[in-house]
Structures are given as C-alpha cells and as structure tokens.
Amino acid sequence: MSTKTKKKVNTALVHTVLLFYTVIALFPIILILINAFKSRKGIFRDPLALPTEKTFSTVGFEKVFAKSDFVLFFGNSMIVTLVSLFFILLFGAMLAWALSEYKFKGRQLLTVFMAIGIMVPIRLGTVSILELMVSLDLVNTLTALILVYIAQGLPLAIFILSEYMAQIPDELKEAARCDDVSEYSIFFHIILPLTKPAIATVAVFTMIPIWNDLWFPLILAPGEETRTLTLGVQQFIGQYTTDWNSVLASLSLAVLPVLVLYLIFSRQLIRGLTSGAVK
Amino acid sequence: MTKAGRFPWHIVVFVLPGFFIYTLFSAWPLLDTLILSFFDQNDTGARWFSGLDNYRLVLLDPDLSAGFWNALWNNFKFFLVHVLVQNPIGLMLAALLSLKDLRGARSYRTLIFMPTLLSVVIIGFIWQLILSPLWGVSETLLEAIGMANYFDAWLGKESSALLTLALISVWQFVGIPMMLIYASLLAIPEELLDAAYVDGASPLRIFWQIKLPLILPTLGLVTILTFIGNFNAFDLIYAVKGALAGPNFSTDILGSFFYRTFFGFQSSLGSPTLGSTVASLMFLVILAGVMVYFWLVQRRLHRYQL
Amino acid sequence: MAALTLRGVRKVFDKTEVLHGIDLDVEDGEFVVFVGPSGCGKSTLLRVISGLERIDGGELLIGADVVNDLSPRERGIAMVFQSYALYPHMSVFKNMAFGLKIDGLTGEQIKERIHAAAEKLQLDKLLDRKPGQLSGGQRQRVAIGRAIVRDPRVFLFDEPLSNLDAALRVQMRIEIARLQKSLETTTVYVTHDQVEAMTLADKIVVLNEGRVEQVGSPMDLYHRPANTFVAGFIGSPAMNLITCNVDSVDGPTSCLSVSDQTISGVPQTKLSVGHSVSLGIRPEHLSVSKGEGISFKGNLEAIERLGDVTFLYLILTDGSRVTVAEQGDRQLEIGESVQVYAELDKLHLFDDKGRALRA
Q: C154 and C31 in one domain?
C-alpha cells in the first residue's frame, strides 16, 4: 500500500472509532427523548422508532405537570445554583485576591487550609452539617443548601482564580496605588474585570455539581417546598416507577435544560477544561 | 503593601466572608465528624466519649463489620472498573482526538462529553430503563448483533449488578479523563512529534514511546481524581438501587453504607456517631489514596519541561 | 549524500498558496541557506522538503528519485529543529538511538555510530544525561548529533541557533560549518539572520512571499543583488535606495536628479530620460572624505559613534534618508550639511519595478 492510501485507511478507522463512541455516548439520551413523546403502546412496540403521528403523545408531560410541582423544583434548582454561584465567585475572588496579592501573617497556612477542601469531599462532614443546620433552624430551607454549596465550591474557585490573578502584571496595581485608589476599587474595578475568563471557567466547573447534586437536597432539604429538580425527579420516579410515560417525560424535562445550556456554552466549557485550569 | 502603622482592614474584608462560610460549613463539620466518631450517644441524645469503641464496632463487630467490609470491597471493585475501563477508553479517545488535522474533533469531543454533565441520578434512571427486561431495548439491540442470548437482567443479579453500575458510571464520566488527557496531549510541542516522525516513527510508536511517557503525570492525576470521586460516590447507587444497595447489598459502597448507618433503614435506627465513624473511615481511605499519590506516584512520575 | 532538486514546488494552506512554484537545484554536498523575512515561506519550504508537509504541486527529487509521496525516513533526511525537539524523557543516548532502532540497526551498530558522533560533538560525557540537565549549547549539539547518526542523504536545519545567546551562536555557527565540511552532506539551512546566511552558505536562496528572489553565492548577493528586495535584505545596515529621476543620458554616463540636486556621471547606458530609478549605495560605500565618483549632500540628522565605525544619518531635501557608515570617529555637528562621496563601481541601479539595471 502506498503511504497515501494507508493514511486514508487510518483516517477512516479513526473516524469509525470516534463515531462509534459518539453513538454510545448519545444513544441513551436520544432514546429517552424520543420515547418521552410517544404513547405507552409506541414506547413498548418499537422503542427505537421516532414518534409518528400514530404514536405521538405528550401524556407523560401532562401527568408530570399535574402530579408534581416541576416548575417549583426547577425554580428551586435555579435559585440554589445561581445564588451559590454568585457567592462562590464573589467570595472566592476576594479570597483568591487576598491570598495572591497581600503578604500577611498566616497566608501560607490559610492557603493550605483552603486547599484541604479540594481533596476532601465535604460530604464526609454531613453528620455534623445536618446537626448544625438543625441548630440554626435551617433544615428544609434553600439557604442551607446554598451555604453548603458555597463552602463546597470555594476551594477550587480560589485555587483557579489565585493562579490566574498572580499573572496580572504588577504595574497595573502599582499605577493605581500611586493614584491613591483604594484597595477595594483596585479589586472591583481593575482586578475583577481582568479575571473574567477564569471566572467563567470556575462558574462552569462549580455550577454543574451543584445543579446535579442529590445528596444534600436529600438530607438537608427533602421537603416538598424546597426540593431541587434532581431530587424532585428522583422522588417522582420512585413513586411512579411503572408509569413509563411519566418517567420518560420527567427524565426528559431534567435533561433538556442542561442539554440546551451545554450546546450554548460548550465551547467555553471545553476551553476551560483544556486550558491551563487543571495543571 | 500597607501603609505603615495602619491596620490592613481591607485584607480582613477580603478574607473574612469566604473564610467564615468555608470554616463553618466545611472545615468545622469535617473536624467535628472526626471528633464525633469517638463519642457514643443514647436515645435522649446525651453524648459521651467512648474512645475507639465505634471503630471496633464498625471494623470488628461480627454483626456490623460485615457491612463495612463488604462496602469497602465493593468500592474497590467499583474503582478498579473505572481504572481499567474508564481511563483507558478516555486515553484512547483523547489520543484519537488529538491527532493532527482531524476533522470534526470539536464536534466529537463536545458530544462525547455530554453525558458527563447530566445528573448521576438521571443517568442512573436512563440506564435502568434501557437495561430493563420489561422494555427490551437492550435485548433488541443485542439481537441485532446476534448476541440476544447474552442478555440478562444485569442490574437485578447479585453477580452482575455492581459491575453494571460501575460501567454506567464509566459511561457517564469517561469525558473527564478524556478532556484532561486531551489537554495534556495538546501541550506536547508539535516539533517534538515532528522530530519523531522524521526519525521514522509510526503513529503508534509515537503514541507509545513519546506521547504516553510525557502524559504519565496526567494519568496519575486522573487516577487520584477518580479515586476520590469513587470513594465518595452515592447518587448512582441510591438512584438505581435505593439505600439498601440491593440485591442483597451487592452494590453497597461506602457512600450508601454511610447513608444507612447515619439515617438507619427499615428496622435499624440510624446513629450520628456511628455515621461519623464511617465518614471518618472514608476520610482515612481517601487520605491514604491521596498520600500514596503524592508520595509514591507523583514523585516518580517526573513532569518534564516541554 | 545526494543532490536535491525542486521543480515548481507549490504549497497551499486553506486555499491560500504560500509557495508559488519554487525551482531550485542543490548540488551534492552543497550548503544552501534559505533566508528571508518572517512569513516568506522559508520554513514551509523546508518542511515540504522534509516530508512534514505534503507537496501540493511540482516535483521534489533527492538524488534521482522523486520523493513527493515518501515519508521523511524514506526520503533519507534528518532534521534539526529550532526548539531542538529532544525527547525529554530519554537520555542523550536514547535520543540518538531512537531513529536508529526504527531503522533496524543492531545494538552494536547503534552504539558504534552514537559514540562516533558523540566524539565529534564532544558529547561523550553527556550520553546518560536527560535533555533537562543540559545547557542550551549542549542540547543543540545533541540535536545535531541525533541528525548525523542517521547518516542522512540531506540535512535540514530549521533556525537552529535562534534559541542561543549571541556568544554561543557564533561558536555553534563555526562548529556547524566545520562539521558540514567534514561530513560533506548536502545541507539545507533556514534562518532569518543574514549573518548566518552569509557565513555558512555555499549558496543563498533569498525568499520573499513564497517566491525565490535570487539564488547565488553570498558575495554574489552582496555585490550583484538582482532587485531592491535582495539589495535591502542582504547587508547591514541596509543599502540606501534613493529614488531619482533620469535628467540626461550622455553616452556611457547619465545625470540623475533627486529633488534640488543633480548627481552626474552615473555609469549606465540603459536609462532613458524622464524615467524614475532607484540608486542603491551601501552605507559602507559612502564616505565624507572627498573622493572620485559621484557625490551629493544631505543634512546630518543624527550620529551614532560605535568607536570603530560611525553611522551618519542624513536627510535629503526631498525627505529621503541616507545612512553612511564611516570608518573611525568623525567630528561632525548635528544639523550640518554634509557632502558624501561614492565610487562608481559601488553603485547599483534599479528600475521602477525594482529590478537591477546592469551596464
């Protein structure tokens, strides 16, 4: 075989493998999405077919909306995720700035202290967290979740942000200091805007685990009013295991928002993942 | 950088909010859990120091310890499947994606990474449906490739449930090693690969003898991240199998064992102190893994300046 | 060892042609240097010759064989990269052995070759080291060693000295020249540094925007640049190019005018009155000392004294600038009007398209 044909065969082989794995990765998700729009008969008779005029049905979605408070759950998840995210970014950036910029006593110790949170999963402290929330009367509130998620997200945020902030040229801050600009202004008006790319990366990294978490909603806020989407779907499916229409519809409802967001932000996310964020 | 004599309040302002929340809701609870593991309590909630009694109970007691050892052993199997399946697949995908001049590399990685973003709970349910003999999707698919006889209710069998769950988890999270390895492959200077090509090395040889040795540190990192994730896993087991991690505890891992010990299940009551003990043991396992990584693995895997 | 022939070689990146049909003959054992500004295509051309880039048109021959579709190894080339591209996880010995093993040599043969090369390059004591433990100059020598153990038909160098400091660069330059003479291997060397080009080359190829501007020996290019591009590129400081009008042609000489001055007695026969030409004079060929030939004057705008040489920067009334490199130190005042002289045989003339006009 000549070099040229060999190359062509190799390229074809590479694409075959990648395509095959892409199908494996997407097939289950697509299967759920197409069957969510079918009647019960359609689901069972020919699971692999797209919904046709005959089998099309949205009965699952109707049931889900009738029997559970999906909109509420979705709203809860949004609130918890966005509020946690806001504070993780704000407090994380502030701490990262302090750690990377100012030389103060105990800085090294504080850095190590915060780094522990990257390696040790916060879940291991659940017993104590629950008791703490009971004593603060925060059980079954979104606040409890938000507080825990902030604590959970801070270490990684600080790690990534302080690495990034350390690269900001000294001249920028020195120039501002010569003009007698306050340290707060330097941070909010010079440093934060410059840190935007790293903040975006951190945002994506922290948002996903919060949105998807089951553990803390299950333990700290299992009440009907404060259920997050993930917990809501879990409980709903637990109740209606045999109602395939509802199960498929609720799964689709949980998948779709993430899918849409991902397709919009995938470029940013992957850039964050493949850039120097993880060293 | 502070003006002489004046107390640097701004540092306090920058540090305090984050430090306060982190300490109160993460660091302190972790420490408190470790402390609590040395205490016992009665029905009224009164607590007293009991030394290593809890550990003795969890590790050695003829009735209780079986559950812990079973969960620990299962967890190791769970981890092993990830190391042996997830990481090699991730490596292979990353190696293919990083090939020069590959068309559509961006679309491939975007799509393959997608499952990683979804909730473990959702993924668990999706696979439960797909593998369900009631629906028969898997059977149909296996039939298409002439392997219908191999189909079984894998999730329901004691012998295969854990492996099946581990593979579901692999399916979901393969995107993470793929991305990390992909990034480190991209960091290898192009001229180095050119040099190997000029030296006459085939793509396979370049992969095994040039690329792979250079990304070993990343493989080490991926492994320890997988380790921490696996020994902390819970959601998938709970979503698919419930707190009882059936059939007959065959899918019980430390996360689900911790949950049951803490909250109780069926007839047995939960115990915060015993729960703390299990959490502390999980902490020790993770700590041991991290130490092995730092002292043995990372020290030997030299990170070459590229 | 073999000759290298390029016939109409083209390269296209994303529909943009970056090499527009390069023709070139390199004789067996010749040292050829590609030189040109960044982006001129010299590195691309080298990579096309190496086989790292596909050829999109034309033919490439090594010896008598068309090698268009052959891999670098099948072509029998070895290459030294700008970043050295040493395998960081392998010792110096293994770096050099990597290609030899692929070639299927026995352990004994490999050892023999490496030790011979190591001796030549003073690497004997470094064979067990990793690249990370070597200095820049040592790495450079390993990279060269890795190329010569392959005993290639053609050596390719891609700006190999650009990562070294100035002193080391001179030393390595001499070493490369010596090595090439002793090995007598056909060599193609890419650089943007004209001093490297002038000192190393048997033959220089000046490239610009994917085309060959001129091919010739270093002294050829210096004394007889084919066009204003080569004239400006070779030599430092660059040749002065003064745009003039042809006032009159009188037998073998002509008068040129530049703004308010007339420069008379320029030897040239091909000019016609009214045309615009560029008069090229190298700074080192201009002098304030009165001499034979032509002269003109300008205002002294700046002066730089380097001890051995003094640079005078003149501005003519029409705004064109002229640099004079005067031997020794000169006591002149800024703002002074200065008359400068040049010998007739040091003048270059170019037509309005920049092509050299020769008598």
A: yes
Tell me if chain A has a CB within 8 Å of the CB of C301. no
CB contact under 8 A, B276 and A127: yes
Contact map slice: A 115-134 vs B, CB within 8 A? 116-117, 119-132
| Cβ-Cβ contacts under 8 Å for A255 (sequence gap 6 or more) | A29, A32, A33, B118, B122
B101 touches chain C (CB under 8 A): no
End-to-end CA distance of chain B: 36
CATH fold for domain A62-274: MetI-like fold (1.10.3720)
Give C127's DSSP letter.
T
Range of the domain at C149: 4-233
Give φ, ψ of A81 to 5 degrees.
-65, -50
Q: Is the ipTM of this complex over 0.90?
A: no
Question: Whose CA is closest to B239, among B130, B156, B128?
Answer: B128
| C276 and A CB contact within 8 Å | no
Tens of each residue's pLDDT in chain B, 306 residues: 444 567 888 999 999 999 999 999 999 999 999 999 999 888 777 888 888 888 988 898 887 888 899 999 999 999 999 999 999 999 999 999 998 888 888 899 889 998 988 888 888 888 988 888 888 778 888 877 877 777 777 888 888 999 999 999 999 999 989 988 998 998 899 999 999 999 999 989 999 999 999 999 889 989 999 999 999 999 899 888 888 887 888 999 999 999 999 988 877 778 889 999 999 999 999 999 999 888 877 777 766 766
Shared-domain flag, residues C320 and C303: yes
Closest-CA distance of chain C to residue B220, Å:
16
Q: Specify burial of residue A137 (Cβ count, 10 A radius: 0-12, 13-18, 19+).
A: exposed
Report the C-alpha gap between C112 and C182 in whole angstroms: 19
A92, A153 Cβ separation under 8 angstroms: yes
Q: Which residues contact A4 (CB under 8 A, 6 or more apart)?
A: C69
